[in-house]
Amino acid sequence: MAVKVYGWAISPFVSRVLLCLEEAGVDYELVPMSREAADHRRPDYVARNPFGEVPVLEDGELTLFESLAIARHVLRKYKPERLGSGSLEQSALVDMWVDVEAHQLQPPAGAIAVECVIAPALFGRERNQAVVDENVEKLKKVLEVYEAQLVQSRYLAGDVLTLADLTHFTIMHYFMATEYATLVEALPHVSAWWKGLAARPAAKKVAEFMPLGAGAPKKQE
Amino acid sequence: MSTNVARVLVCLEEVGAEYEVVPVDMTTGEHKSPAHDARNPFGQVPVFQDGDLILYESRAISKYILRKGGSDLLRESNLAESAMVDVWLKVESGHFSSTMSPIIFQCLVVPFLGGETDTKIVQENLEKLKTALGVYEARLSRFKYLAGDFVSLADISHFPAAYYLLGGSHTSVLDAYPHVKAWLAEVMDRPSVKKVVELMKLPSA
After folding, report:
1. Domain ranges, residue B51
2. Which helix (H) or strand (E) holds A62?
């Protein structure tokens, strides 16, 4: 029985899961759901995720929600080296950088992407530039820390690609479609790390599921 | 004491590790000092050092401690169980502690700093907390603990925020959720938790 994922692939949380499945070479079926039709609030969906959020993954008898919990399960089962498994230190560094993405990078980068790309395309409203500016300042400081780490190691948790790197891809895919991509491009090691991530076949495949980024207009210089 | 520091200490107690707490005085901005920046460039606590390994992010530290100490609180020898631990650990972070954090800040920290509690923020977050507690009540009506019929880090990770909820002025919010109340009482009754609660009560905490 193939693994099933429920959700809409334009969600960076759904696509984060798809990226891990692609990286692990796992056969999966994406069960289409409509955000507009509020499929995620239907009783049969809430039975799978009591918080009524996407994604959900079904793997045999197991039903999981929370994209990072799902990602960990997929990698633990099908590609444990991506979690630093087998090394106490390595797995700790992976866990640390996965949480750094969630707590330090995603809030500002996600807010910028929402204001610049997602709100105009999906919510039909203009960006709030004050929100953008505040988050640009935060993100600059965060990215300096990333640059300092990536001077020392090829990937965030060491010299092997792990979930710590992969978890960044889908949010950054949207962020890099804004004019603030220059914040990343200005940092040689972060920029090289990003390009390497985006060049992976799994990332390219998943990027096709998230077309908002590709079509978004860039600010005129 | 920072809820994130408390989380790490309880895991050290769970595995019976010897440890030393080095205070970082956030009221004097010590967490922004160059010395602390070298340990955690994001300027937060806790930072954990074990030999040459330096870690931050309390749940990452907690998992390291539990793995190294041979604890079964992560269930990593079982795919299905460890996945459920991960799910409910994310729920703790994203739905419980994240709504408790502004409540704790407004009700405890703001008055301590001489300010006035923003009751609107407190009310908004109490409503979010009730939504989460409804989910927890349903879950704990079916299973003894969050990840299943076994206790895990997912349960224990709630204790720091729960300590403040149980000791604060909004404890009655739990009355509508009897399974949650009983489950929390059991978590708070663990020897490791009781030990750290004593540390949290110290004036220096």
Report:
1. 3-72+196-201
2. strand A62-65
Q: State which amino acid sits at residue B101.
A: S
Cβ–Cβ gap A92/B139 under 8 Å: no
- How large is the C-alpha radius of gyration of chain A? 17
Q: Please give the angle made by the CA atoms of A193, B83 and B56, to the nearest 5 degrees.
A: 50
pLDDT in tens, A134-144: 999 999 999 99
Percent of chain A with pLDDT over 90: 90
Q: Give strand pairing partners of A32.
A: A7
Asked if the structure places residue A220 within a domain, the reply is: no
- The CA distance from B56 to the nearest CA of chain A, in Å, is 6
Contacts of A142 in chain B (CB under 8 A): 42
Mutate which of A70, A72, A75, A144 to disrupt the B interface (most B C-beta within 10 Å)? Answer: A72
Q: Is residue A109 part of a domain?
A: yes
Rounded to two decimals, the pTM is 0.94
Residue A167 forms part of a structural domain: yes
Spatial separation of the C-alpha atoms in residues B111 and B54, rounded to whole Å: 34
Any chain A CB within 8 A of the CB of B36? Answer: no
